[in-house]
Design goal:
By secondary structure, this protein is an alpha/beta fold. The chain folds into 4 domains: about 150 residues, DNA polymerase, domain 1 (Orthogonal Bundle), CATH 1.10.150; about 90 residues, Beta Polymerase, domain 2, CATH 3.30.460.10; about 60 residues, Beta Polymerase, domain 3, CATH 3.30.210.10; about 240 residues, Alpha-Beta Barrel (TIM Barrel). The protein has 24 helices and 16 strands. The strands form 4 sheets. It has a 7-stranded parallel β-sheet with strand order 10-11-12-13-14-15-16. A 5-stranded mixed β-sheet has the order 2-4-7-6-5, with helices on both faces. Strand 15, helix 22 and strand 16 form a beta-alpha-beta unit. The termini are far apart. The structure holds 2'-deoxyguanosine-5'-triphosphate, calcium ion (2 copies) and zinc ion (ZN). The site of zinc ion (ZN) has 5 residues, from loops. One calcium ion (CA) binds next to loops. Pfam families: DNA_pol_B_palm, DNA_pol_B_thumb, HHH_5, HHH_8, PHP. One of its GO terms (molecular function) is phosphoric ester hydrolase activity. Its cofactor is Mg(2+). This is DNA-directed DNA polymerase.
Length: about 575
């Protein structure tokens, strides 16, 4: 660890003490120690090795002890106990520039806000401005900061990038000059994070398209402008490349700009052996200038003697060999989804009613949904007491009877508390059709403890699935640490499914872990985790990750008719 690492922990202690309202002198002591370490002209660890820590200004016996602990564990007793007593989510909030411990203290004590999600919601719903010294301006700044943090530096989380890309695509699709249009690049392949957005348009008359593109309100600056390629930076920092081609070569151009580079390299090598060439203009015989395929991607693969390879598999990980042997998995298709396993309503932190969610889901063609509002441990989300949950289930059943054309199942997203107990009366959980068990607190437990916590929750026999199983926030927080293999094994044994949570910012499980869980024999269920009717569309991100994982429809519980869906995790039914 370098001096900056030590200084960071000391500073966090000072900030957390300030939030918790500790005595001024204790806070000052850690602030002084932070400064000493930050400005130290040599390695702190060299000072430790000499046994000279206490010689340093502002470092007494007690902080010297803390520093030695930090050297061993990356944290110390006082740091850990503050995080446990308050909330580790506060560390994320401290990264929000312009907020600071004083204001966080206010927000924490007045609104109970202790993590970025809750902060975002408080800012969006205009609750920050009700606090002394905070205004609408603060809310705006906080939201912009959260967005910046969510981007986690250069790469943008897929959901955010795809929403932006879809909006641009739709605007350009409306132009009379546009023939075909598609989002290409890493978004089309469903990579978790994306470097830039790639849009492809076919047109006989591209100039007006490039012109309109440069003038869109989202655009902040034009980086490159031309007749076939324009690059811009948007106000939100995302870069977008637009390319236009003639419609005859749309298929091969789409293939080229979808990538990945690795897929292309392998494909070209293979083509070469067959006396063929592949470029963005098509597939060519070695000695000819007229392509034998260029109009669609399907024709392109066919010309190469291969079955179609879906974009999600084009990562150069052996998909070409599998395709050549006709061993590609048949991937889950969006229209095979019959229901959504995770959503919230106005009962807790959602924006729409049971009925509104059901009607929107019916419009998407679903046969069933599960309403899974929060349990009371999630105070910021207005989680339900047992009493409220009982009444909520009655309302869900009532809505189910009233709304035609879709089954509305009773459910809950129940917290798996820090000791593994479930945050709800067991008889009510047994009564619910579907129970998502999730972790929303004490993320920093030691791996053994976390594994035990999950196992204990699962052994109640009341969980249908584990919600957002790793807890990671895309571009933000890492997942909690536990023995993933052991949990998957227990899921198989106990008949508990693992969720692919599609909500923006999560993608959890991601493709890699979903594939692993599937290979170990676990059931998987997709959930949008929608907090509004619009949020139901986030299920498509879970579908895409399932496809990247190479999962067939049979691996996904959402493809089952509702009765089979219910029985899948309840062998007793
Ligand atoms: P990203 O933007 O970093 O998330 O990843 P991509 O895959 O979207 O990469 P990007 O935007 O640089 O390029 C889009 C596609 O264009 C890429 O997947 C394949 C193609 N491409 C770009 N540059 C090259 C290249 O130098 N060689 C080859 N074979 N293909 C390229
Ligand atoms: Ca890209
Ligand atoms: Ca690009
Ligand atoms: Zn949750």
């Amino acid at each position: 660890m370098n001096n900056r690492d030590y200084a960071r922990v000391l500073q966090e202690i000072a900030q957390l003490m300030e939030i918790s309202g500790e005595n001024r002198f204790k806070i000052r002591a850690f602030e002084n120690a932070t400064r000493t370490v930050e400005t130290l002209p040599e390695e702190l660890e060299a000072v430790m090795d000499r046994g000279d820590l206490k010689e340093l200004k502002g470092i007494g016996a007690s902080i010297a002890q803390d520093l030695l602990q930090i050297r061993q564990h990356g944290t110390c007793d006082i740091h850990r106990s503050l995080l446990e007593r308050l909330d580790p989510g506060l560390l994320d909030m401290l990264r929000v520039q312009g907020l600071g411990p004083k204001r966080i203290k206010l927000v924490y004590h007045e609104l109970g806000v202790s993590n970025l999600d809750a902060l975002k919601e408080a800012a969006e719903s205009g609750r920050l401005r009700e606090l002394k010294g905070l205004g609408a301006k603060t809310e705006e700044k906080v939201l912009a900061e959260i967005e910046r943090l969510a981007r986690g530096g250069d790469r943008t989380p897929l959901p955010q990038a795809r929403h932006v890309a879809e909006s641009l695509r739709d605007q350009l699709a409306a132009l009379p000059q546009t023939e075909r249009i598609a989002i290409a690049g890493s978004i089309r392949r469903g990579r978790e994070t994306i470097g830039d957005v790639d849009l492809l348009v076919s047109s006989m008359d591209p100039a007006p398209i490039h012109q309109t593109f440069c003038g869109l309100t989202e655009v902040k600056e034009v980086l490159v402008s031309g007749d076939t390629k324009t690059s811009v930076r948007l106000h939100n920092g995302i870069q977008v490349d637009l390319r236009t081609v003639k419609d005859e070569v749309f298929g091969s151009a789409l293939h080229y700009f979808t990538g990945s580079k690795e897929h292309h390299i392998e494909l070209r090598t293979r083509a070469k052996r067959q006396g063929l060439r592949v470029s963005e203009y098509g597939v060519f015989r070695d000695d000819e200038d007229t392509p034998i395929a260029s109009h669609t991607e399907e024709e392109l693969y066919q010309a190469l003697g291969l079955p179609y390879i879906p974009p999600e598999l084009r990562e150069g990980r052996g998909e070409i060999e599998s395709a050549a042997r006709h061993e590609l998995p048949v991937l889950l298709q969006p229209d095979q989804i019959r229901g959504d396993g995770h959503m919230h309503t106005t009962e807790t932190d959602g924006r729409h009613s049971i009925e509104e969610m059901a009607l929107a889901a019916r419009d998407l063609g679903y046969e069933f949904i599960v309403i899974t509002d929060h349990s009371q441990a999630v105070r910021v989300a207005n989680g339900m007491t047992p009493e409220r949950f009982r009444e909520h289930m009655a309302r869900i059943r009532e809505a189910d009877g009233r709304v035609e054309g879709i089954r509305i199942l009773t459910g809950i997203e129940v917290d798996i508390l820090k000791d593994g107990t479930l945050d709800m009366d067991h008889d009510l959980l047994a009564e619910a059709d579907w129970v998502v068990g999730s972790i929303h607190s004490h993320f920093n437990q030691a791996p053994d403890q976390m594994t035990e916590r999950l196992l204990r929750g699962m052994r109640t026999g009341l969980l249908s699935c584990l919600g957002h199983p790793t807890g990671r926030i895309l571009g933000g927080r890492d997942g909690y640490r536990y023995d993933f293999d052991a949990i998957v094994e227990a899921c198989v044994e106990l008949g508990v499914a693992l969720e692919l949570n599609g909500s923006s910012g999560r993608l959890d499980l991601n493709a890699e872990l979903a594939e692993k869980a599937h290979r170990q024999g676990a059931m998987l269920v997709l959930g949008s985790d929608a907090h509004s009717t619009a949020g139901l569309h986030d299920l498509s991100f879970a579908v895409q990750q399932a496809r990247r994982a190479g999962l067939p429809a049979e691996a996904i519980l959402n493809t089952l008719p509702v009765d089979a869906f219910l029985k899948a995790t309840r062998p007793d039914l």
